[in-house]
Amino acid sequence: MTTNDTTHVVLVGAGHAHVLVLESWAANPPMNTRLTVVVDRPESTYSGMVPGFVAGDYRLAQTSIAVAPLARRAGAELVLRRAQRIDPDQRILHLEGGLGGGAHLAYDIASLDVGSSIRGLDLPGVREHALATRPIGEFAARLDRRIEELARSGRAGVRVAVVGAGAAGVEIAFTLHARLEHAGLRPVVVVACGAGGLLPGFNSRVRRLVSREAAARSITISATTDASFADERGVGFATGHLRADLVVWATGAAAPDLIANSPLPHDPRGFVRVASTLAVRGHRGLFAAGDCAAIEGKAWVPKSGVHAVRAAPVLDANLRATLAGSPLREFRPQRDFLSLLNLGGRRALATKWGLAAAGRLPWIWKDRIDRAFVDRFRDAEGSPAPADAR
Questions:
Q1: Looking at residue 168, which CATH number applies to its domain?
Q2: pLDDT tens-digit map of 234-293
Q3: Degrees to nearest 5, angle at CA 338 with 387 and 143
Q4: Are residues 90 and 130 in the same domain?
Q5: Residue 192: pLDDT above 50?
Q6: Among 38, 100, 200, 201, which one is least packed by beta carbons within 10 Å?
Q7: Residue 385 falls within a domain, yes or no?
């Protein structure tokens, strides 16, 4: 809390918006402010590079941003504990661990950038038998281990079911096919679309291109009902059972536990409701950005790293404005932004303004954008970027 005219600011989570805020505060720290960063992992995984990791284009370390050096440069204290619940009225963050099994942290101003969970994890067998694509860092580590197990098994072929056909599911299907093929495991990949269908939110040209690319790789895009369970043999639907050696659960974003368990205003899907200023409704001094937030009147905004990155300057400005007692800025997300989907095999699909193209050039473009984002923070750590994994 405020002591001796010092205001305590707490950043909960190290999503894309928060790492950019830390970069800004390292360059220009506000006066009379104490900053604390609360994270449950010492690194932040950059979501844009995860499909490339799945494809084998990057090592896991190349997709990660170390949080401690960023916090240190910003003059922040780093608390490595899981945030369990926030009490916005008392301005207290409850943490896992500590004496008596719990601890708490008082704040004056706080911001939440804790990502998202994934829908359907409570369905029978999903946690035990499927690889959920979120949390991203955990998914990446578990996938590496599972591929090693499959390689040691001596199987002539590997059957993969990807549950969910949004952008994440499509990218995982293509990049995992490329990774398994390179490993000599002869993959058979089926994308189970569910009720949402193929690539909801994308235009018909993009869907046609993806279908064409899938056919060329023998990736099956299957219209199904929503999955209802997973077991050791694969994944089940109301219409039947799909046998698979590996089930990847990519059914779309859900509110993380911290958001779901806290007395915050929620949208119909359970995400924390914020104004266009990224301020949490009804709770002065509390902000939220990235996947965990839902901007009022903008339900169309996808859970995308692009929007989290673009929200960062507004979040930074509004944290500073709150400290100064100044008016807040509005975040105006773009409806039509460049979207780049990794198709594996060093191919990608680019779409903007209703146009779409797939090939090597979009992959090179995406690779350069992603590497540049992560390397700016790695350079800030005072260490060289990792060598190219290819």
A1: 3.50.50.60
A2: 999 998 999 999 999 999 999 999 999 999 999 999 999 999 999 999 999 999 999 999
A3: 45
A4: no
A5: yes
A6: 100
A7: no
The C-alpha atoms of residue 220 and residue 170 are separated, in whole angstroms, by: 11
Burial tier of 128 (Cβ tally within 10 Å: 0-12, 13-18, 19+): exposed
Domain end call among 281, 305, 324: 324
Phi then psi for 189, rounded to 5 degrees?
-110, 130
* Distance separating alpha carbons of residues 390 and 376, to the nearest angstrom: 20
Domain closes at, from 277, 304, 324: 324
**Residue 71 lies inside a defined structural domain of this protein:** no
What confidence tier does 4 reach under pLDDT thresholds 50, 70, 90?
low
State how far the alpha carbon of 203 is from the alpha carbons of 89, 113, 198, 356, in Å.
43, 29, 10, 9
In this structure, the answer to whether residues 112 and 259 fall within a common structural domain is yes
- Structure token digits, residue 323: 């400290």
**147 lies in some domain:** yes
The verdict on residue 104 lying in a domain is yes
What is the pTM assigned to this prediction? 0.92
Strand order across the 109-112 sheet: 77-80, 33-39, 7-12, 109-112, 286-288
Q: Dig out the tokens for 33 from the structure.
A: 């402010």
Residues 143 and 267 in one domain: no
Q: How many folded domains does the chain comprise?
A: 2
